[in-house]
DNA sequence: TGTTCATATAAGCATATGATAATTTAATAA
DNA sequence: TTATTAAATTATCATATGCTTATATGAACA
């Protein structure tokens, strides 16, 4: 395969369409990529943070455990909508529940969650 | 408004539908919620991390600056699809570009990005 | 100046996702 | 048991989003 050398002294293939211009960079990065399943899980985790309703729920729960109807009142949203998002968060084990009679209290399930919220907010504030 | 007292000694309103069961908890949390605009920005930031293609791009760029066609080869995706996601990331100033002749190199624009990726991955690995 | 090639953009389509309304479940109290 | 009430579930609809194909830019170089 014909190769030329760029001014940066990396080998460069002739076509970019299929194999890229910098084969070594590609294979180096490729070797360092986590398994596909990890990256999918990671995207799924961030996806849950990537919705205005859910981020408000998470921020609220980072301040205090709350029941569903309190969240409805706080967010000014209908109960099924809130329950639906809580279900998503619970399935991902981002929040956990505690029942007290008819009332179900939700809270954060993990300290990482708070760190992610704070780190994200730091980024926003420095823009 | 009639109030009763729960076994947790917080005042409890009679209906949950409109105003929630724990008015003080609601107003305490409400006071601590960031402005709506911040939360929207925060959700938008996480939303960009919440896609498998973009997270792979970000992880790759966290290892090395890369041009578009190298990313295409690495991710085994068509060029317009990759360019489209790069555009989203660039608009949010998560990645930046550098042109060298016909080739445009992309790289991470901010150190927070790497921290967020790592913190997210930590969370995944401890589940 | 005209060709080549890396990248960007536009239009169209299919899927994913979030909200609503209606209904069901589950726990308590009468 | 029956009524009440907090929460969950189901069905439906509208919007958002990501990929594809086709086309357009724009820089380098003959």
Question: Can you tell me about this structure?
Answer:
The structure is a homodimer of 127-residue chains. Chain A is elongated and about 65 Å long. The first copy, chain A, has helices at residues 23-32, 36-49, 52-63, 68-75, 79-91, 111-125; strands at 3-5, 11-13, 66-67, 95-100, 103-108. The longest helix of chain A has 15 residues, at 111-125. Chain A has a three-stranded antiparallel beta sheet with strand order 3-5-4. A two-stranded antiparallel ribbon of chain A has the order 1-2. In chain A, β1 (3-5) and β2 (11-13) form a beta hairpin. Residues 1-14 of chain A have low confidence and may be disordered. Chain A is built from six helices and five strands; from the N terminus they run ββαααβααββα. Helices cover 57% and strands 16% of the residues of chain A. With 127 residues, chain A is of the alpha+beta class. Chain A folds into two domains: 3-33, no CATH class; 38-125, Winged helix-like DNA-binding domain superfamily/Winged helix DNA-binding domain (Arc Repressor Mutant, subunit A, Orthogonal Bundle), CATH 1.10.10.10. Chains A and B meet through α1, α2, α3, β3 and α4 of A and α1, α2, α3, β3 and α4 of B. The first copy, chain A, binds a DNA duplex (30 and 30 nucleotides) through residues 15-17, 21, 51, 53, 67-69, 77-87, 99, 101-104.
